[in-house]
């Protein structure tokens, strides 16, 4: 029974790093990451979440550099619910309080090989002016209780957000047994997986 079960599973190995970020208005930032994936997916090795060191801009560059490694392997029985990487960036405000500076998410690349992703970041905005002022005064910015919500479409449209900053991530993707199970992950077929993932995004946990 175990052999039959293993024969219906493929593997997705995610290596790479959260290279850095560009936040023109902020400095001394760190990044948290986690994965969101469908019910048929499960991590087998590596870390599902992590946190980088605090980094500062150099005098020669306005970019923030983390070079924080990513190493995770997933198993699944079908590509629906393909994993997404969710990143959230934090840093001090003028009062020294730790506040969120941006949320973002991207699907893990569908095809094997080297990939670079630049993730646009955003923050939730207060819905009225007094709330914005008191939030600034008390050092409390609106933020999500669970950053994984940014990977889901449901309910996001009722949240007022503001774009700010970008995070750059490099990936080295490897797959095993996908072709044997009938999934050809060539460049011409990645859109098929994207469509299947989008249509069943409700499967993501």
UniProtKB/TrEMBL annotation:
Ranges where the record places region Disordered: 185-205
Subcellular localization, as worded in the UniProt entry: Cytoplasm, Cytoskeleton, Cilium basal body
Keyword Cytoplasm: yes
GO biological process: cilium assembly
Annotated keywords: Cell projection, Cilium biogenesis/degradation, Cytoplasm, Cytoskeleton
InterPro entries assigned: C2_B9-type_dom (IPR010796)
Cytoplasm in keyword set: yes
GO CC terms in record: MKS complex
Transmembrane portions of the chain: none
Superkingdom to which the source organism belongs: Eukaryota
Principal cellular location given in the protein's record: cytoplasm
Biased composition (Low complexity): 190-205
Subunit and partners: Part of the tectonic-like complex (also named B9 complex).
Its job: Component of the tectonic-like complex, a complex localized at the transition zone of primary cilia and acting as a barrier that prevents diffusion of transmembrane proteins between the cilia and plasma membranes. Required for ciliogenesis and sonic hedgehog/SHH signaling.
Family that this chain belongs to: Belongs to the B9D family.
Protein name: B9 domain-containing protein 1
């Amino acid at each position: 029974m175990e052999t039959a079960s293993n024969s219906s599973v493929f593997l997705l190995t995610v290596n790479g790093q959260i290279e850095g970020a560009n936040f023109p208005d902020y400095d001394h930032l760190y990044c948290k990451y986690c994965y969101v994936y469908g019910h048929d997916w499960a991590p087998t090795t590596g870390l599902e979440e992590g946190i980088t060191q605090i980094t500062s801009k150099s005098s020669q560059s306005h970019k923030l550099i983390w070079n924080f490694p990513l190493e995770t392997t997933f198993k699944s029985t079908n590509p629906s619910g393909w994993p997404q990487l969710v990143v959230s960036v934090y840093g001090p405000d003028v009062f020294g309080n730790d506040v969120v500076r941006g949320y973002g998410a991207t699907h893990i690349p569908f095809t094997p090989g080297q990939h670079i992703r630049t993730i646009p970041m955003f923050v939730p905005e207060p819905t009225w002016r007094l709330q914005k002022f008191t939030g600034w005064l008390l050092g409390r910015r609106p933020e999500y209780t669970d950053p994984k919500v940014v990977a889901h479409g449901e309910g996001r449209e009722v949240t007022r957000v503001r774009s700010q900053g970008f995070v750059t991530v490099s990936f080295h993707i490897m797959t095993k047994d996908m072709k044997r199970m009938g999934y050809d992950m060539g460049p011409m077929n990645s859109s098929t997986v994207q469509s299947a993932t989008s249509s069943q995004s409700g499967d993501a946990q």
